[in-house]
Predict the 3D structure of the following.
Amino acid sequence: MNELDVLILGEIRLHLVVEVERLPAAGETLMGRALYHFAGGKGANQAVAVARLGGRAGLVGKAGADAFGDELENSLRGAGLVELRLSRSDRSPTGIALAAVDASGQSELIVVPGANAELSPEEVRQARDLFARSRVVLLQLGATPEAVTEAIGLARDFRKLVILNLGSSGAAPQSLLKAVDFVTANSSELEVLAGRRVTDKSSAELAAAILVEKGVRNVVVTLGAEGCLFWGPEGRLHVPTARTEAADRPAAQDVFHAAFALTLARGETLRRALEFANAAAALTTTRPGGQASAPTHDEVREFLENVSASSTIG
């Protein structure tokens, strides 16, 4: 059986995006300019990004027993994943994200979790062999806490490196935060966890330090145009990012986590993993779209060679 670089457990959704000249007011009906639909969800995005970066990816998730679920399953099976364990629900539909995007890029989003919220510990246990064969396990909180807890337990049974990406909620039980090797968050998610306002790199460092004091092993914070920072027992590390002419940003966070997990799975240093993840995310912002915007390994390597970026440690 093939070994996996990264095993991902997380959300699978179909995204429906309507382009409008401006966002509607309450009760208003507008004519849309175009409608797009594409595969998405943090778990699916991260798995596809690992594969596009040249890694061996596995994905555990759940979709509805419906046409949208069929479409997403076919899309994922054609995306280069080594393993796909996709449970199907007869009770709930496939997860959906509905978005309206105006001419300036502002958007309104409604997410219906659907079958994602049904992924059970037993369904996670059925993928036990994938945990045994993986190097790094990457989790998000889009699945149920029970499913995430089960996944952490399996990863620990096999002594795997575990990364918990908080996703959009920002809230998580302390027991989960302390049980993983890395907790990753953006500024707003970090605020929720630390109970402290985060507005820049300095305030992010203070908030990350609070989490480490509470027992979180290692914290990685993504800061958008300011790059990312690491805080843990080994010290702190800030890695700036290259400036780009951003066309789109939706998939950048997911590509960052995929690249970070994959680089660690390949035995690279923490500094190298953060630099590679930053570059992959920055390159993603220059391209429109979701999963298709994830770069290849050679593209990231060329990007790093062409952009001089420095990092500081203290």
